[in-house]
Write a structure and sequence with these properties.
Length: 431
């Protein structure tokens, strides 16, 4: 099971977009490449991923060939827009490292042939800790990857078991060490609030993540996604629902321990290790993820792969969800094969549908994303009719404000308590 996609409107079969509808684009461009394969489907996960392949162009062995096609399409469609060189590429999943490291490297190489990449382009892959070894990490670094994000989730065996995770928790230290030796920046994903996880268990996981000496940590509250195995277990009463108070205590513990260890939050779920001379309270940190920031700063990005979403100016669109349907669409529904040669089918878009955002929708989206960051949001971006609610939110210790709102330069930022109630603060200032 994977989440369903929104309805939207039909998208041009050749993917070419009407510049009038695109409107003003960002100068910054990022690429996301989705790899929809995993060895095991974790009971909590509803990402668009499968434990089997679906034939030519839609199986781990030949997936890169379909990715090349969508890179070609992206380069052609984006050519008229004046983007700076690509600032980040993120290969996510699924489990990207189920593709051969050689093929992951070829994807980066292909992107670099079709797009100009910035000199300091951040090139990340996600990885499951048991899907990489030292050799694979060296190959990835040699192929141009600069960063790797491991799905650690927990260091506690019974928590990992509830999450259906198969890796040995001791492996985290080893894979981070190998990645660093290969010259890769490292990030660890942690999940808190798993049924049966105590506050002490969570502390063990945070301590283990810090002991691995990574430069970036993401912590996610467990979401019980509808339709997943875990959701069914909750419905049947086999597992309890996460408790919001327990999750709040765990978030606070994460903030305390990570801050004490020299990390700074720069988005609600993300912490970067500070380097000498850096101050907390900003997203401009050396170890912050350029790719994550691209989403929160409303930059443009192209999402490659089944179910992947793209964003260019006022337009959003999303690809066919099933790997076979996506790969097939990229061949012009059979006009071109998978032998590497285009037989003249022209451009063929795998988009299923899309939508045009109105200025008010875009402003709301910008608000939702920016308020989550340590940079906060200019008061001038809040609807003038709702600005009067800001003092009360400051009084409740949910927001802090710097600068003088009467001179139009004030910025509001979530406090620690505000980060826990970000949805409430957002509602207060948008509805
Ligand atoms: C899509 S996964 C890809 C990484 C890799 N497949 C892995 O799991 O090791 C990216 C991250 O999303 C987070 N995640 C996935 N499903 C989640 C859920 N239901 N609730 C909270 N976090 C989740 C996990 O922390 C995971 O590492
Ligand atoms: S390995 Fe990652 S992407 Fe795959 S099912 Fe598990 S959490 Fe989801």
């Amino acid at each position: 099971m994977a989440p369903t996609l929104p309805d939207g409107v039909a998208w041009p079969a050749d993917g070419i977009l009407d510049p009038a509808k695109v409107g003003r684009t960002s100068r910054n461009l990022s690429l996301y490449i989705h790899v929809p394969f995993c060895t095991v489907r974790c009971g909590y996960c509803d990402f668009n991923t499968y434990t089997v392949g679906f034939g030519p162009g839609a199986s781990p062995e030949s997936y890169h060939q379909s990715v090349f096609r969508e890179i070609d399409l992206a380069a052609a469609v984006l050519a008229p827009y004046q983007h700076q060189p690509v600032q980040s590429i993120f290969v996510g999943g699924g489990t990207p490292t189920l593709l051969a490291s050689k093929h992951l490297g070829q994807i980066v190489e292909y992107a670099a042939q079709r797009f100009e990449l910035a000199d300091n382009c951040e090139i990340t892959t996600e990885a499951n800790p048991d899907s990489v070894d030292q050799k694979a990490l060296e190959t990835l670094a040699a192929a141009g990857f600069t960063r790797i994000s491991f799905g650690m989730q927990s260091a506690v065996p019974h928590v990992l078991r509830t999450l259906d995770r198969t890796h040995d928790p001791k492996r985290i230290n080893r894979v981070v060490k190998w990645a660093k030796q290969a010259g890769l920046a490292t990030s660890l994903d942690l999940i808190y609030g798993t049924p049966g996880e105590s506050l002490a268990d969570w502390e063990v996981s945070l301590t283990a993540a810090l002991a691995a000496e990574t430069s970036h940590i993401s912590t996610y509250a467990l979401v019980i996604e509808e339709g997943t195995k875990m959701w069914k277990d909750v419905q049947r009463g086999k597992l309890p629902l996460p408790d919001p108070d327990d999750e709040a205590a765990k978030y606070e513990l994460a903030d305390t321990l990570l801050t004490k260890a020299g990390f700074a939050w720069y988005e609600i779920s993300n912490w970067a290790r500070l380097v000498p001379g850096e101050q907390a309270g900003t997203t401009a940190l050396q170890h912050a993820s350029v790719h994550n920031l691209a989403y929160w700063r409303d930059d443009d990005w192209w999402g490659i792969g089944p179910g992947a979403h793209s964003h260019l100016g006022n337009l959003r669109w999303w690809n066919r969800k099933h790997p076979r349907a996506w790969a097939q669409a990229l061949t012009g529904n059979g006009v071109d094969g998978f032998d590497g040669s285009h037989k003249g089918g022209g451009l063929a878009s795998p988009a299923q549908a899309g939508e045009e955002l109105l200025p008010a929708d875009r402003a709301l989206e910008r608000f939702l994303l920016q308020i989550r960051t340590a940079d906060g949001l200019a008061v001038s971006e809040v609807d003038p009719q709702l600005r009067g609610r800001i003092p009360a939110l400051i009084g409740q210790d949910l927001l802090s404000m710097e600068g003088n709102p009467n001179q139009g330069e004030a910025v509001i930022t979530l406090t620690l308590a505000g980060r826990l109630l970000a949805d409430y603060v957002t509602r207060e200032l948008t509805v």
